[in-house]
Amino acid sequence: MTTADLRRSGLRRSAIAAAVRSGSIARVRRGTYAARGTCRAVREAAVHGGVLGCVSAARHLGLWTLAPEGETHVWLQADGHRFPHDGCRCVDHWDAAPSRGRLAAASVPRILRQIWLCRGVEEFFVAVESALHLGMLTPEGRAWLQRTCGDGAREALEAAGADSESGLESLLRWRLRGTGIALRAQVLIAGVGRVDFLLGDRLILEADGAEHHGSAPARHRDLLRDANAAAWGYVTLRFEDAMIVHDWDTVRAAIDGLVAAGIHLDHG
Q: Per-residue confidence at 219, pLDDT binned at 50, 70, 90?
C-alpha cells in the first residue's frame, strides 16, 4: 500500500503514523507500507520498488516452478526506480509495466510470459501446465500468450494440457515429446491403478516427488504397485525428482534402452 492508497481509504497522516506505531502496518520504504503478516517475498519486492513477478509470482500463487528459491523476481514500473537493499538478490522485470500510479499484481498470463522471457521454454511449459491444472489460465489468457510469445512458447502452449499433477510430470512430458512414441498421462491400468505416464503400450514411467514417496510405507506401496504391474505385463521405470531435473541423461538413457529393446510394445 502507498501513502496515497491509505489516504484514499480514509486514513489521515496521524492515523497512518499511529498504525505504524501499533505494528498493524510497517513502513517498508518511503511512501510504501505493508500490512502485518505480509509474506517475506511480497515485502522484499515492495522494498525493491515493485511487485512479485516471473517465477517468484508463480511460486506465490502455488504454480509449479523449477527455479531454485533465493532470488526474488520483481516487476517494476516503467517510469519508476529500483531500490537495491541489504542482501538484495532481486531480478528486475520491466516489461509493459504501467507508466504511472500504483503497480498492480501481475496477471497469470503476464507471469507466464515473464517466465518464458527469463527462464526459457521448458520452465514456461511447466508453469503453463500448472496454471491449466489449477484453472488459473483462461482461454483468453492462453490466446494472449499465443499472440505475444515466440515460436518455442507457442509450441509449448499447443502441447500443454491440464492433466499433469506435478511439475515433474510436466517436465517429463516436455522432454519426451520428440520420441515419436505415444505418451499418455494419468492412465488408469486395471490391477495397478492410475500411473503418471504410459509410454507406448507397456512402459510405465513414474515421477516420484519426495513429499509423496519418501517414507517407508510409501516405498512399500510403490514396490507392491510395481510388482502388480509386472504381473500384468508392464515394466515400470521410477525416477525421483532430482534425477529428472538434474540427471536427465541417465533418465533418458534408461528409457531409450527399454524402447530400443521393444519393451514398450505389446507383443501379444
A: confident
